[in-house]
Automatic annotation (TrEMBL), chain A:
Main location: membrane
Domain ABC transmembrane type-1: 65-254
Protein name: Carbohydrate ABC transporter permease
Transmembrane regions: 7-29, 64-89, 101-121, 127-150, 187-208, 233-254
Superkingdom of origin organism: Bacteria
Source organism: Nocardioides hwasunensis
UniProt KW keywords: Cell membrane, Membrane, Transmembrane, Transmembrane helix, Transport
Cellular localisation: Cell membrane
From TrEMBL, chain C:
Residue intervals passing through the bilayer: 36-55, 84-110, 122-143, 163-181, 228-251, 277-297
Recorded topology in the membrane: Multi-pass membrane protein
Organism: Nocardioides hwasunensis
InterPro entries, A to Z: ABC_transporter_permease (IPR051393), MetI-like (IPR000515), MetI-like_sf (IPR035906)
Protein name: Sugar ABC transporter permease
Lineage: Bacteria, Bacillati, Actinomycetota, Actinomycetes, Propionibacteriales
Domain of life: Bacteria
Signal peptide: none
Predominant location: membrane
Record-annotated ABC transmembrane type-1 domain positions: 85-298
């Protein structure tokens, strides 16, 4: 393929891929009257901030932003620790039942969340977690994907490093803490991004388990808007933009580490 | 970031109060609704708390998820003490013994509510909730569009309501006059509104269930007539094809956007119309057409208390308060909804907006008959409603014949009716 | 950090890995404990519960009664279930191969130095971080039949409206398109990461113009990427079978049953107004079994290919 052709294809692909995002941004700034009169359009020419000011008047946006940040951060921290430990054990330690554990973990990967939602809720409620952020944090702290990623990463991890630490008199756990974790930074980067993303974007589970407007997270507002009677595309897109922006920024900044992390995390 | 650390405490080490059940001086309440409605709920809750010296913890949830939250809460004992519920869903909760019996506390209210509406909150002769308001639909239209299409007079008295044939002529004229292959009108039977199709069945003189609520009877001549007529909405391109019963979007936006000449719309949309249409075009409301009889659907919501409420006395008291003449008046006036108390219905309420439209709606409500209410408040009606949406769409957009469709609905109604035991009031 | 100075000969890492000591087993279970506890309590438990409900006649608050295989036999006679299964299969067939192949194509295309490559890549990656709810809502905005952007563009071009929402095949198309949009970036990022391990000379050969490039790509590069492809096919398969948000928001399963999927059907039965927990759980469990079987099949095929 010649270079100009290659370039042209890239531009075409980029245009197609950017269209939905562009639509979100443009409509978020389009006045409601304009959408009502002429339909949603990428070049209506009218601009307004009214969609955003409307949101700030309707929801405690900052508080929900803070809640989302808190919940996603705690989940991520817990999830990274738990999955690092588990993944390492599955990859590097020999014990009876290892393959069974791996199979069970992989099995949970194929469970559709909607199917277990009712029993899961009943459980969370019986544990007295409803109304606590923990109701959201604990069930999503251990993800099969995270554990699997960690295992794949550690399988390729050089045994020599660990053995060296063992010879220096470290226990398994000490060796893990002192030499394994510091060498697992790319993995941690990937796991952090994936876990944070998943938790930040969740809306249905926080809505039913937190059950209090003081505890709601930002994407819940999106659900509230989406199910309102009037299809207020301007308001919905403004909220979609607000709730996506933190992740988009985070991703643009961390993208390099993300790719590097994946290339070393053994999914390949 | 002050808010973060504050909320951090509340959700991490301390349970937020709205999710534990009530106590001697605290009651939890869950509502959904439009902006205006939820604001009035907040005001009423505040009035009640200051009058009684108690706390009301109010939670607002989306309508689409309210039942999931309540279900889960009921299963696990974390349900709100008091919650808002639509009449069909209420049937399910009442019939499974989840609600607080409020027959005695609400005696005064019961004496003032029209029997057919009271029936919507009554199960096995016991009262389980406050019928807070009733909604129904009427035909909202644009006088300019109808004029331009050559439609002469629009009925301004109930007895002049268009017959189906007259309405069909109007629809054809409006369709022909609309620019770029536009449509004439839309019906608000999407998603949970599928039961609004029953209005056409009732108009044709049919019913969903037999009088004992044991068996479906809609597959008779009246049913065929109603379904053939409503299906012709699509065949004649009177309505946009995207406004069938399973559409993920509501058609109101198409009316407010000025793309339709007429819209069957609930009165609860009146504030939204005032807001989004503004003075971009003129609009008015007339009666739904008539066939064998006039009809209208029973919409609206009730306020109920959970049987296992932490403090049933206080919960019942809150219900009594919300059902009081004063609270119902405030609620209905601000949100432009129709009161269920006869004493209020007789008064001229001072509606926040669109008061001039409400006379027609009030008249539509008066066409609701006892048996119509019984049809839509069986314990399994909520699932019948889903079947209606599915089957009607296969007739409107697919190639299922009216007879087959009615037969399929009847089969599902019959299967569900087996579970309706003990429901008849 | 302790520097790894000991020569491998002194202790055999291989040996240590093959024979686990009791101490090692203890450490392993200790390290796995938090994970297993969380998975066991919050996932395996509820899953077992769902399995139990599939064999009960249980509706919302009533007490469940054991009903044996009643739910299953109803399932096999349920036209909507078969339709949902067919739709899910169509959706999977439309999203998995295309999603993976386009990811590979774009990765090869954008792997080479190119001015502005970073920008192109970022644009394709970005949908990864956009939530499925946002994706679905944007999809609704694009494909809305009356006020949507795509029909607006078509109208501006003087073309007729397309019935994205009221035509079954087109509704399915719109759902597939939005799904692909949100997924291709992930396939691409994984492939790009994998390409970093492929010998640069091989890649160069694949990038030379002419017929040979295609040959090298097909005969050398693609086989080298086989493990990556395996991983991507597997996760895409699982995701496709679990599709929910996009369908729920964009089409609500309609028009008719044209886009009803297994998960949306299970959700409607179990959480919808019917609250038929038993039947909803049955649909879910059958779905779980199907995905599980497909996954095992994939794993086995992969193992055989590797051997």
């Amino acid at each position: 393929m010649s270079r100009p052709v290659r370039y042209a294809i890239c531009i075409l692909v980029a245009l197609i891929f950017v269209l939905p995002l562009l639509a979100m941004v443009v409509i978020a700034f389009t006045p409601r009257e304009s959408i009502l009169d002429d339909g949603a359009s990428l070049w209506s020419g009218d601009w307004t901030l009214a969609n955003f000011s409307g949101l700030f008047g309707q929801f405690p946006v900052w508080r929900w932003f803070g809640n989302a940040l808190l919940v996603a951060s705690l989940t991520t921290a817990l999830s990274v620790v738990v999955n690092l430990l588990g993944g390492y054990a599955l990859a590097k330690l020999r014990f009876r039942g290892r393959s069974t554990v791996l199979l069970v973990v992989l099995g949970t990967l194929v469970v559709p969340v909607q199917v277990v939602m009712i029993p899961q809720f009943e459980l969370v409620a019986r544990l007295g977690l409803v109304g606590f952020f923990w109701a959201v944090i604990l069930p999503s702290a251990s993800t099969a994907l995270g554990l699997f990623l960690a295992r794949q990463f550690f399988i390729d991890f050089p045994d020599e490093i660990v053995e060296a630490a063992r010879v220096d008199g470290c226990t398994t756990l000490q060796a893990f803490r002192r030499v394994v974790v510091p060498n697992a930074r790319p993995l941690v980067a990937v796991m952090t991004l994936l876990a944070f993303m998943a938790q930040w974007n969740d809306f249905l589970w926080p809505l039913i388990t937190l059950r209090d407007p003081d505890l709601y997270t930002l994407p819940v507002a999106l659900r509230l808007l989406q199910t309102a009677y009037d299809n207020d595309y301007g308001g919905i897109m403004a909220m979609a933009l607000l709730s996506s922006l933190p992740l988009v920024l985070m991703f643009v900044v961390l993208q390099r580490y993300f790719v590097a992390g994946i290339s070393r995390s053994g999914i390949r | 970031m002050g808010a973060v650390s504050l909320s951090g405490c509340a959700g991490l080490t301390r349970r937020v109060s709205s999710t534990s059940s009530g106590s001697t001086d605290r009651v939890t309440m869950q509502v959904y609704g439009t902006d205006v409605e939820t604001k009035v709920y907040a005001r009423l809750a505040e009035q009640f708390s200051s009058e009684r010296g108690v706390t009301v913890d109010l939670t607002v949830v989306p309508f689409a998820d309210f039942a999931t939250g309540v279900d889960a809460g009921l299963l696990s004992g974390t349900a709100p003490d008091v919650f808002r519920v639509d009449y069909p869903t209420m049937g399910l909760y009442a019939s499974t013994d989840q609600l607080l019996d409020v027959t005695d506390p609400l005696e005064e209210l019961a004496g003032d509510v029209r029997p057919s509406l009271l029936r919507a909150v009554t199960y096995g002769k016991r009262l389980y909730g406050v019928p807070q308001h009733v909604d129904t639909s009427a035909l909202v239209y644009r006088p300019d569009v109808l004029r331009d299409a050559g439609v002469g007079a629009v009925p301004d008295r109930p007895e002049d309501a268009w017959s189906w044939e007259e309405f069909g002529d109007v629809a054809s004229k409006v369709r022909d006059a609309s620019p770029e292959d536009g449509s004439a009108f839309a019906v608000n039977w999407q998603a949970a509104g599928a039961f609004r199709w029953l209005t056409w069945l009732f108009m044709a003189g049919g019913h969903l269930y037999d009088e004992k609520l044991e068996k479906a009877v809609l597959d008779d001549d009246a049913g065929v007539r109603a379904l053939e007529f409503t299906r012709s909405f699509f065949d004649n391109e009177w309505v946009p094809r995207s406004t069938s019963t399973k559409s993920p979007t509501y058609p109101d936006a198409q009316f407010t956007a000025g793309r339709l000449g007429m819209l069957f719309a609930g009165n609860f949309l009146v504030p939204a119309f005032a807001d989004t249409i503004g003075d971009r075009f003129e609009y008015a409301v007339t009666y739904q057409p008539r066939d064998e009889r006039r009809a209208s659907e029973l919409g609206g919501n009730a306020i109920v208390a959970t049987r296992d409420s932490g403090n049933p006395e206080l919960a019942a008291e809150l219900l009594v308060y919300l059902g009081s003449s004063d609270a119902m008046k405030q609620f209905c006036e601000a949100s432009v909804l129709l009161p269920t108390r006869e004493s209020l219905a007789a008064q001229d309420l001072d509606f926040a907006v669109g008061g001039d439209l409400m006379g027609v709606y009030a008249d539509q409500v008066s066409t609701i008959e006892d048996r119509d209410v019984a049809d839509v408040t069986t314990p399994t009606f909520a699932e019948v409603n889903v079947d209606l949406a599915n089957e009607l769409e296969s007739c409107f957009l697919g190639d299922s014949s009216p007879q087959d469709t009615l037969g399929a609905i009847a089969d599902k109604v019959d299967a569900a009716a087996l579970l309706n035991d003990g429901a008849a009031p | 950090m302790t520097a790894p100075t000991v020569a491998p000969a002194e202790v055999s890492p291989q040996g240590a890995a093959m024979t686990g000591s009791p101490g090692q087993a203890r450490a392993a279970w200790g390290m796995l404990a938090p994970n297993l506890l969380l998975i066991g309590v919050f996932l395996a438990g509820p899953l077992a519960w769902a399995f139990a409900m599939a064999f009960q006649d249980k509706r919302s608050f009533g007490k469940g009664t054991w009903s044996g295989l009643d739910n299953l036999s109803r399932l096999f006679g349920d036209d909507v279930f078969w339709r949902a299964l067919l739709n899910t299969a169509i959706f999977t067939a439309a999203t998995v191969p295309v999603g993976v192949l386009l990811g590979l194509g774009l990765a090869l295309l954008m792997n080479k130095a190119l001015p502005g490559r970073g920008v192109f890549r970022t644009i394709v990656y970005l949908p990864i971080v956009v939530s499925s709810l946002v994706t679905s809502l944007v999809g609704l905005l694009l494909f809305d039949e009356s006020v949507g952007i795509i029909n607006g563009i078509l109208r501006d071009l003087g073309l007729a409206d397309v019935s994205w929402q009221s035509d079954g095949a087109l509704a399915m198309t719109s759902v597939v398109v939005m799904t692909l949009w949100s997924r291709i970036g992930f396939s691409m990022v994984i492939y790009i990461a994998a390409l970093q391990d492929v010998d640069p000379q091989v890649i160069e050969a694949a990038e030379v113009d002419g017929a040979r490039a295609w040959q090298v790509t097909r005969r050398v590069v693609v086989p080298l990427l086989r493990p990556t492809t395996f991983f991507l096919v597997l996760v895409n398969l699982i995701w496709s079978f679990q599709v929910f948000d996009v369908v729920y928001v964009m089409t609500n399963g309609g028009p008719g049953y044209s886009t009803t999927m297994l998960v949306t059907y299970a959700y409607d039965e179990g959480f919808g107004p019917a609250r038929n927990f038993g039947y909803g759980a049955t649909v879910g469990v059958v779905l779980f079994v199907i995905i599980g079987a497909l996954t095992l099949l994939q794993l086995r095929r992969n193992a055989r290919a590797e051997a």
